[in-house]
Amino acid sequence: ISFSHFSKSMMASVACVVLVMSLVALTTVPVEAIRHVSGGAMNRGLTAQVVASAKYIGGAQSLWHTQQIDHFDHQDTRTFQQQYQTNDQYFKTGGPLFLMLGGEGPASVKWLEVDTAIMVYAQTHNAFVAQLEHRFYGKSQPFGDLSTDNLKYLSSQQALADAAYFIQQLKANQTELANATVIVFGGSYSGALAGFMRTKYPHLVAGAVATSSPVQAIVNFVQYHEVVANSLQTAAKGNLCLENVRVATENVTALLKTNPPKLVKDFNVCDSALSDPLDVATFMDNLAGNIDGVVQYNKDNRDFEGGPAPPTIDDVCGIMTATGTPYDNYVKLQSFLQDNTCLSSSYKSMINDMKNVSLESSAAGGSRQWVYQTCTEFAYFQSSDSPKQPFSGFDLEYSMVQCNDIYGFNVVNASVAWTNQYYGGYDISGTNIVYTNGLIDPWHVLSVLDAGPHCESIIIPSTAHCANMYPPSSKDPQLLTQARNTITNLIATWIANPLP
Predict the structure, then answer these.
(1) For strand 182-187 and strand 207-211, is the pairing parallel, antiparallel, or unpaired?
(2) Between these two residues, 10 and 426, which has the higher pLDDT value?
(3) Nearest to 85 by CA among 52, 48, 53
(4) What's the whole-number mean pLDDT along residues 374-391?
(5) What is the mean pLDDT of residues 397-419?
(6) Cα–Cα distance measured from residue 337 to residue 323, given in angstroms and rounded to the nearest whole number
(7) CA 373 centroid distance within chain
(8) Do the Cβ atoms of 278 and 398 come closer than 8 Å?
(9) How far is CA 480 from CA 86, 219, 441, 458, in A?
């Protein structure tokens, strides 16, 4: 193994994705490029600016680690350079090792330099903090391109094996960590990885904080938009808001049959006449996806990242219940959410972008890789097939066909069945895992809400995706603060009395 320093100035210019084991994995690819078959807004991008709203800690550094390409073929001795970051500012001899495993996007050192939850816990427990970038994301590229042949080495199993090897080598090379208790952290996809890591490698990992973690793979994730519907109803005039979104969707569907040019003009569609059925599905998916992203990240504490505050459910419903017809208000809402930019709806253009294997392509920011993982492991396809939600026009087949159009195969059903058999799905068997979820977040449906023996489930009704992982804020609901306190107490218990 080799560890080498990596320029902090270079990392400072890298748009974030964190992985607090991914912190929802955060990528910087354009939203319209990932909505179709990935985790919806699951891998939403984060900038990495640190501003006055967060407490600056500093002390982090970015490094490189020599990693095996294939952990399961011992005749394959090829390696690649995997990026990781560390912060030992709070570490004291005898303290634990906190490991944030990477998710579906680049890893940013910024998350180890401000008072994110992982760093607050580190201060309390005198921990050494490390963050390991997920293979095939960010700068941790095993090959010179993202061809489908190369992507066969991209899987959650390989990623967990990466983490296991990293832990062993880090302990071997840093004597002060030789006997350190290891706790892993993650949110969204990497939250699931955290739970899987504790389950599959209990001899290396003593506990896991699995936030907003979809441990259950699912082909047709119809519940996603059902939760979006329920979450819209939490706003003032929420019932009217939901009904008006439903009516507006019906109006759009009718105009697709009678007057597509009006829709092209009203919604500022830039690359389609909305005559091709797949373009229509892409259009309808993107309209829903704009609202999905607002709901999923509703009122999260991203102020420390800089930039304007993201829109909220209250903003969406404020527009949808204002004076005017549901259709006219929907046009205004979509323009607001698109920031007055045009709406891409060309299926062919999207597929061509996703087929680009270059590491310099926009899809290489994370979308080509993550969509591959959905096609080969998790699916999570968010269709409009349920009658219990307001959207329409993008059925399961629309998502399924993209696996074949992008990668040349479709093994979704068999892959999802294998994933749940391998990890356990809702019946995941690991101990010392805390599952934290907000009920506004659609992903909570696929997490563990009723934990078994030696595990905990924390539900925060008024919060959305990965809320407990952000820096604390004076605006945090009381239950969010209590959740963070409960987690730190659980960590103390795991460190003091680790289970086998």
Answers:
(1) parallel
(2) 426
(3) 48
(4) 98
(5) 97
(6) 19
(7) 13
(8) yes
(9) 27, 31, 14, 10
d(CA 443, CA 215): 10
Active site residues: 188, 441, 465
Cα–Cα distance between 343 and 338 in angstroms, integer?
7
Token digits of residue 325: 């017809």
Of the candidates 118, 138, 161, the residue with the CA atom closest to the CA atom of residue 43 = 138
- pTM (2 decimals)? 0.90
Q: What is the pLDDT of residue 27?
A: 30
Residue 46 and residue 18 in contact, taking contact as beta carbons nearer than 8 Å: yes
Counting DSSP H helices and E strands in the chain, the numbers are: 17, 11
What is d(CA 195, CA 430) in angstroms, rounded to the nearest whole number? 7
Task: Using alpha carbons only, give the angle 320, 321, 324 rounded to the nearest 5 degrees.
Answer: 85
Confidence (pLDDT) at 12: 28
The tokens describing 48, both together, are 């990495």
- Tokens representing residue 392 in the block: 């329409």
Both structure tokens of 1: 């193994």
Question: Residues 439-466: what's their mean pLDDT?
Answer: 95
| DSSP run (H or E) holding 348 | helix 347-355
User: Token pair of 284, please?
Assistant: 């309808």
Contact of 178 with 97, CB cutoff 8 Å: no
- pLDDT tens-digit series, residues 47-65: 333 334 678 898 999 999 9
Cα gap 59→171, rounded to integer Å: 20
Distances (CA, A) of 39 to 141, 214, 314: 22, 10, 23
Question: Residue 176 carries which DSSP code?
Answer: G
Please state, in angstroms and rounded to a whole number, the distance separating the CA atoms of residues 442 and 454.
26
What pLDDT does 39 receive?
A: 39
Mark 272-310 as b/e (b = at least 16 C-beta within 10 Å).
Answer: bebeeebbbbbbbbbbbbbbbbbbbbbbbbbbbbeeeee
CA distance 159 to 22: 12
Q: What is the pLDDT of residue 304?
A: 55
Here the tokens at position 186 are: 């993650």
Which residue's structure tokens are 């990477």? 102
Residues 6+ apart with CB under 8 A from 328: none
State pLDDT tens for residues 209-245.
999 999 999 999 999 999 999 999 999 999 999 999 9
Would you state the pLDDT for residue 307?
61
| Helices 478-496, 117-125: inter-axial angle, 10-degree rounding | 40
- Band of the pLDDT at 192, cuts 50, 70, 90? very high
Q: Which residue has the tokens 């970051």?
A: 85
Closest alpha carbon to 329 in 315, 344, 310, 343: 315
- What is d(CA 261, CA 272) in angstroms, rounded to the nearest whole number? 10
pLDDT over 60 (residue 168) = yes
Beta-strand relationship, 207-211 and 433-438: parallel
Q: Strand, helix or coil at 199?
A: helix
Which residue is listed with tokens 């748009």?
Answer: 15
